[in-house]
Amino acid sequence: MGFIKYVIGDNTVLHLEKEDKEKVKYLLLDYKDNILHFNGINLEELLKKYKTPIFLFSQEILEMQYDRINEIFSSLNIDSLKIAFSVKSNPVPRVAQTFAKKGSYFEATSLGEVKHVLANGGVPNHIIFTNIVKTVSAIKFSLEHGVGLFAVDSWSDMLNIERVCKSLQLKSNVLLRVNPGTLLDDTLFSCTGINSKIGILNSNNLDNDSLLRSILDYCLNSKWLSFRGLHVHLGSQIINLDQYREGMRRISQLISQIENLGTKVKILDIGGGFPVNYGGKEIPPVEKFRDVIQEVFNGQLSSLELILESGRYLTAPASILVFQIAIIKEINPFLNIACVNGSFYNTIPDVIIADWFFPIKNVKHNKNSPIKPYRIVGSSNDTLDLYHGQNKKDNTVLLPKLEEGDNIAFLQVGAYSISFNSTYCMEERPLVHFIDNSSQ
Q: Which of 109, 171, 319, 425 is most enclosed, with most CB atoms within 10 A?
């Protein structure tokens, strides 16, 4: 099926089916009459109604990202495909509601996230509880409310789940969360390797004396645990496809070893990893990950239910964060400090925690404005409260000339920023506003 390409920001490409004529109305992020429009909304007019800093979310982009993953991976030779939203990436209720209406599954990593999904329309049987520590109260609540799958992360985790199941006289479906032990050195967010805290380490051979084999045998013989398959999460923001391929190869090999024992693997849950371009390294498109999965698992997929977990890819492009420039300090001809009206701790702490880069746009665009270097800093007295930008030497970013009172938009901020933000210095958290294009 053909696609029309739409660009949001400078990097992420979204798609609309050509046949969907009604949606072909506007670029999702574009200047019209020198004013930045997001999802068809004039930001200058919108900001007359709401104070900054403010997160703006597009309902349409959330849905498009979900449909895009579903469309791409549906081409696999596969028995069944499910998309699971990783709740930790964005706790905004409207986000969970949007995906629930799409029929999404949900990856939950705490009792709070389980309750969040249930409160916002999620189907209990569509929840996968993956946290490495599941308390007795969390397991009990989840079982009583019909949570569909538990990812067993360790021997103790398995025993805790079984004990609660026995006390409630309920049987639980479980996946074994496997760490393939492969190298993943291209991201800060690796969940694999021999020193990872995540999952049951796979020795690459399902020997009788291996921990993985012991846990598998225990599950298979337990009255209260029903083994359904495997869960694997290599990490987030993966860009090295060779390393991704090796991780998947080891999981494919493990599936064969388990089935050679006479046990059917019915579910393969591949957690996350699809990267978003924040303006730094070149990233592979999602289609490349699909191709690796097809290549590695080949005929194994035809009898499997494949669950794809995603958080960042689904939500990052769906939001922008708008600040007002409160104060400009002209240090010298080569450096201007632009102080925004909020702290990065309370908005996008990713720039402090992970030295993250987000593209920036002026809300009001003047083609004749000179380009100047700015150090963008937050409003607190904390010296770490600044945006590092692409120029690491002096932490500056090149922007058209700014004036006090101007607004600037940070793009691609829909994943994790809201999850991480704090009330440091007793600052209020930013507003969140949803743009639902169906109501326009």
A: 319
Q: What are the beta bridge partners of residue 411?
A: 320
Tell me the C-alpha to C-alpha distance, in Å, between residue 18 and each of 22, 41, 302.
10, 23, 30
Between β-strands 200-201 and 172-179, what pairing exists: parallel, antiparallel or unpaired? parallel
The strand ranges marked E within 18-148 are 29-32, 35-38, 41-42, 54-58, 80-86, 105-108, 127-129
* Residue 182 banded pLDDT, cuts 50, 70, 90: confident
| Domain residue ranges of the chain, discontinuous segments joined by + | 1-58+316-440, 59-315
The pTM is what? 0.90
Classified as helix, coil or strand, 329 is strand
Query: 220-268: per-residue pLDDT in tens?
Result: 999 999 999 999 988 778 888 888 899 899 999 999 999 999 999 999 9
**For 106, phi and psi rounded to 5 degrees?**
-135, 135
Interatomic CA distance for residues 225 and 217, integer angstroms = 11
pLDDT of residue 25: 44
Domain 1-58+316-440 has CATH 2.40.37.10: yes
The Cα 30–Cα 40 span in angstroms is: 8
What is the CB neighbour count within 10 angstroms for residue 337? Answer: 16
Distance CA 430, CA 342 (A): 8
Distance CA 227, CA 176 (A): 8
Cα separations (Å) of 404 from 274, 324, 326, 340? 38, 8, 6, 9
CB neighbours of residue 224 within 10 Å: 18
C-alpha 241/C-alpha 301 separation (Å) is 20
Between the two ends of the chain, the Cα-to-Cα distance in Å is: 28
Q: Tell me if 293 sits within 8 A of 333, measured CB to CB.
A: no
59-315 under CATH 3.30.420.40, yes or no: no
Query: Hey, what amino acid is at 425?
Result: C
| Residues whose CB falls within 8 Å of the CB of residue 332, separated by 6 or more in sequence, listed in order | none
Q: How many whole angstroms separate alpha carbon 108 and alpha carbon 115?
A: 9
Is residue 313 within 8 A of residue 286, CB to CB? The reply is: yes
